[in-house]
Amino acid sequence: MHVHLVFVTKFRHKVFDDRHLTRLQQIMRDVCADFEAELIEFNGENNHVHLLVNYPPKMAVARLVNSLKGVSSRRLRQEFPDLAHHYYQANKLWSGSYFAGSVGGPPLSAVKQYIEQQNPPG
Fold it and tell me: Which ranges of the sequence are coiled-coil (predicted)?
């Protein structure tokens, strides 16, 4: 099964630059692997990220999302101390909400292309 995920930063603050996004992609890939899922596509801007994930049907998407957001927030805080001022209320980097859309209507290539065409941080 495929899911398109979008995570936004708390208060949509502009947090990420290229080095953060590069590291986030690897962190997300590693977390997906731990869940027997695969990160197919990743892209983001300074205040949000898009992921296209292939995951096993036995997995609850909410469980995967909680891990992706929790692990990425913790690791970024450890590896990039300069981001500390972007963490709010109990050290939260991400907004509590997220978008999760099952992918099956449009071809996967269309969703991949949409994610690839998101504006890179400037």
Answer: none
Domains of the chain: 2-100 (3.30.70.1290)
Average pLDDT, integer, range 25-38: 98
Count CB neighbours of 76 within 10 A.
21
59: Cβ contacts below 8 Å, ≥ 6 apart: 35, 36, 37
Which SS3 state, helix, strand or coil, does residue 6 take?
strand
pLDDT at 90 over 70: no
* Closest to 24 (Cα-Cα) out of 98, 63, 80, 66: 80
